[in-house]
Write a structure and sequence with these properties.
By secondary structure, this protein is of the alpha/beta class. It is 38% helix and 19% strand. The protein contains eleven helices and 19 strands. The protein has a seven-stranded mixed sheet with strand order 9-8-7-10-13-18-19, with helices on both faces. Strands 1-4-3-2 form a four-stranded antiparallel sheet, covered by helices on one side. Helix 2 packs parallel to helix 4. The longest helix has 33 residues. It binds 5-S-methyl-1-O-phosphono-5-thio-D-ribulose. The site of 5-S-methyl-1-O-phosphono-5-thio-D-ribulose (MRU) has 18 residues, from helix 2 and strand 12. Its EC number is 5.3.1.23, 2.4.2.7.
Length: 356
């Protein structure tokens, strides 16, 4: 894994001369660098250290990983199937929560009988499809938000990074925000900083700045206060895994946002590709939540900020129950787990339940 000549490619990851090229998301916003990932091991490391991150992007990385493996284990016109299957299992397990990773690996593996080039072609096809799928989901979500809130330029709030960096291109929730901005429907975006790794402050702010969309970084713990002060018209987030009933796993802090949005009657919209649904999972209780290194919390920019002996709770994701979600928007459809819930704040619904 090494830094390559910086330039702005059309896709956040792509294939070039025997290797995967990917934007190094750890370096932003200070530097725009490309990584050259030429082995399964370097690719797994890049997924685990979040150089390549975001559910759709790691799904595509997983598919490219299978292509790298198939090329490495190819001799005399035959692929060593067992070796590629073993690499595929390691790739799929690199991070546990986003269903897209195992999905991408499985889909690429399905082309193994056709040989290494067939696997690589499939991975490249998936990159092109992801860009198209995101554009469709973002358009649909922007239309939905526009119809729910037709009157004025909107104050939107988003969490983590769901933009082009987290996908092949275009982005999901951030793609919808950019689409709304394109139609002059955005007054300002509140960007949750997204502790502890600051995907919002570092990456979403960078993408919005590039696009010229006004934004304000919001301390995660101030998001509920922003809603109570009437500074937020709608919340848009992405997803790492959506259970069959609509329960949605996403970056830690999303559940709290959904609770606050329901309390204040604010629409809470999830934007994600169809491939993020895990139809085998009945509800969100079965989602494997990644717990990350305590050092992400006990240090800040390389400096220790907590007692050396402090123990830490550092889940990377949480699960938002479907009943708190106004709509899940994909490239194909708008699913309303709880139609119109946002029109009635949670406390009113609780009062109704108590009366029943
Ligand atoms: O740990 P990360 O940065 O990979 O987490 C990413 C998120 O939670 C995103 O919101 C999600 O993957 C959707 S990206 C379109």
């Amino acid at each position: 894994m090494g830094a390559a000549t910086p330039r702005k490619p059309g896709f956040s990851l792509y294939w070039e001369k025997d290797a995967v090229m990917a934007v190094d998301q750890r370096a932003l916003p200070h530097a725009f660098e490309l990584l050259r990932l030429d082995s399964v091991d370097t690719l797994i490391a890049a997924i685990q250290n979040l150089a390549v991150r975001g559910a759709p992007a790691i799904g595509l990385a997983g598919a490219f990983g299978v292509a790298l493996s198939a090329r490495a284990h190819h001799a005399a016109g035959a692929v060593d199937d067992t070796a590629v299957q073993a690499d595929a299992a390691r790739l799929a397990a690199a991070r546990p929560t986003a269903v897209n990773l195992a999905w991408g690996v499985r889909r690429a593996l399905g082309r193994l009988p056709g040989g290494p080039q067939a696997v690589l072609d499939e991975a490249m096809q998936m990159v092109a499809e992801d860009a198209a799928v995101n554009a469709a989901a973002a358009r649909r979500a922007a239309e939905l938000v526009g119809s729910l809130l037709p009157d004025r330029p909107l104050r939107l709030l988003t969490h983590c990074n769901t933009g082009r960096l987290a996908t092949a291109a275009g982005g999901t929730a951030l793609g919808a925000i950019l689409k709304l901005a394109h139609h002059s429907r955005v007054a300002q975006v509140m960007v949750d900083e997204t502790r502890p790794l600051l995907q919002g402050a570092r990456l979403t702010a960078w993408e919005l700045g590039e696009a010229g969309v006004p934004y304000r970084i919001c301390v995660d713990s101030a998001a509920a206060a922003a809603m109570s002060q009437g500074l937020v018209d709608c919340v848009l987030v992405g997803a790492d895994r959506i259970a069959a009933n609509g329960d949605t796993a996403n970056k830690i802090g999303t559940y709290g946002l959904a609770l606050a949005a329901a309390r204040h009657g604010i629409p809470f919209i999830v934007v994600a590709p169809e491939s993020t649904w895990d139809h085998d999972l009945p509800d969100g209780s079965g989602v494997a939540i990644e717990e990350r290194d305590p050092a992400e919390v006990t240090t800040y920019a390389g400096t220790a900020v907590a007692p050396a002996e402090a123990s830490v709770f550092n889940p990377a994701f949480d699960v938002t129950p479907a009943e708190l979600i106004t709509a899940v928007v994909t490239e194909d459809r708008v699913v309303r787990p709880r139609p119109g819930h946002h029109e009635k704040p949670l406390r009113h619904r609780i009062a109704e339940l108590v009366k029943e």
